[in-house]
């Protein structure tokens, strides 16, 4: 919805009566009971008989400590939703509180709708408990299988970033984001507090952070748990938030206090948005809540004489010996019966009607929210025709162009086509302060950088209504984009290649999410996570060794083959073709690796489409086998823009100096095609692999990344030992472009020498050519030091 209304508006006062409190406490008891039952029980799940050891699961897996707090917040958010008709998304940073969220979505009815086998009766509760953290069941975290979730929380630190991504361009959405005080110690979460500098109340939804301070991590106290309220409030205030502290260990006092804090926060958000959308931007800060409650609240106070509640000992399973320790078993039964399950569930095992009525209706339930199943909201991306941006290629390898600049022009027009009248939209570019540096600056023709803080006369392209997201944190860029995609929009994350490694574990987690999402028919497809790696290792010669690292390719290769794709376009038109494909795709992670500097251009748009569709092809114009009418003596292969230039230069040297040598030149753009079809959907079949590389000819392969990646990919192909790969070998410094390939032994001269060693026969002129290459390498070493630039025959080289 983009009608300009603020978040919620039905009844902002929110009176909370004693009867409301009693109902919420009972619902909370039901949620806590089902949470404990999921962790412990495989049978007798409603305690209709005395608890016996055989009712207990053989392996106790799950997290109790954070769950009561998560359930309490859920209960009060349900009341807020019913009262105000707000669309609310629940993001739980302590994702290991999975049983609490499963319990909550079960109580509201969503879980049984998504999984009809988990019915709303005793049989359903039995299945709900038996499936939790067991083989063939569901994971212990708030995983992709949990309705209402866009955030698992397994790897801590990303909750607030995901919440922000979901709120961008969803003006009527409230994202309640619970942040554990352990998670709050991580670097990504610490950076995420800067959200008020980027969240626009005119066109975005709202994020309500709830910092849940229960005092302990898995093995010790937390920083915020041992910090004063004043210090925590001062920190959050300095980040742009207006915090309210709610604390206590008596539920009858904490529930009303948290209800009031949520009501006041909702009112403040509504007022802030209403003023902004009326054109009146004030200095008001976004509300936040600091909630201090005991860890493992309502659970065992002590176990074996040792304090548990409120300590790290409540983090996971507070009673661990219940199958063998009779005292523990009795304590568990006493704990579970304290919730009064017989008064919460009727004789059939269904939640009693007065508690069932506490849930919002339909898609207003947080487990049913379409914002948590973003494919339901996703609109097709109107990618413009590529002919508008394509370069005209009269002859391959004779003209230079900054390869990524055409993509910036395409993204500019995507912004224009997807921007709504209220200034929102459904496409965004996320980049760590490098949009113009990465030659994508054309987007600033139609929008600015998003910035909610003061702007000066000498700033470039900053405005509150800007929609290019630049923040000097790869974690935030990746996290914002993930939340943006999972709630139904499209985007691109562009980063310097070496520093995208900062966020690689986030990409791994997102891949795992998509891998399981495709097996859930109720999860609608979402737009793919597209990552552009530019400012690459080979052309960061001006920055030095710290900026030179292609390791993200290696991190992605082993991941789910149904999800990941790695693209290495050699020029601008192939980049356009690949980008068009990636931007239209769903449920994938696309890694696009291409440099931003001027590079030689090779293919027309038509040829680029054919090349990218195939994933690899023989460039007949570059080899000599067609003219010779004979099979190649050596195959020259390349994947990546700089490797392509060097392999072509090597091919030209071989043609000129050893004219009777028959060469074939192969270019690979879809790296995963090197795998067999049984290992990856894009894998080249046996016929195509032979058509590219023959059955037994040696292949000299120039590769963008670490050479071991290619050896890994071709394992199982015919005679893999015949592939001789040159790639990045961790040699770098601040130097010239050609010196980088020389340092890593991937220069045209090294490739020629390798080809001469691997050819079927020694062609005429081979010795002389080898001597020439060695002299050129020696000359390069002297020239680059004396002149501080590359030799003219290298820097001015074009294909001929």
UniProtKB/TrEMBL annotation:
Residues 24-376 form the Xylulose 5-phosphate/Fructose 6-phosphate phosphoketolase N-terminal domain. Pfam families: XFP (PF03894), XFP_C (PF09363), XFP_N (PF09364). The keyword Zinc does not apply. Its cofactor is thiamine diphosphate. InterPro entries: THDP-binding, Transketo_C/PFOR_II, Xul5P/Fru6P_PKetolase, Xul5P/Fru6P_PKetolase_C, Xul5P/Fru6P_PKetolase_CS, Xul5P/Fru6P_PKetolase_N, Xul5P/Fru6P_PKetolase_ThDP_BS. Residues 596-799 form the Xylulose 5-phosphate/Fructose 6-phosphate phosphoketolase C-terminal domain. GO terms for biological process: carbohydrate metabolic process. GO terms for molecular function: aldehyde-lyase activity; magnesium ion binding. It comes from the Bacteria. Keywords: Lyase, Thiamine pyrophosphate. Belongs to the XFP family. This is Xylulose-5-phosphate/fructose-6-phosphate phosphoketolase. The gene is xfp.
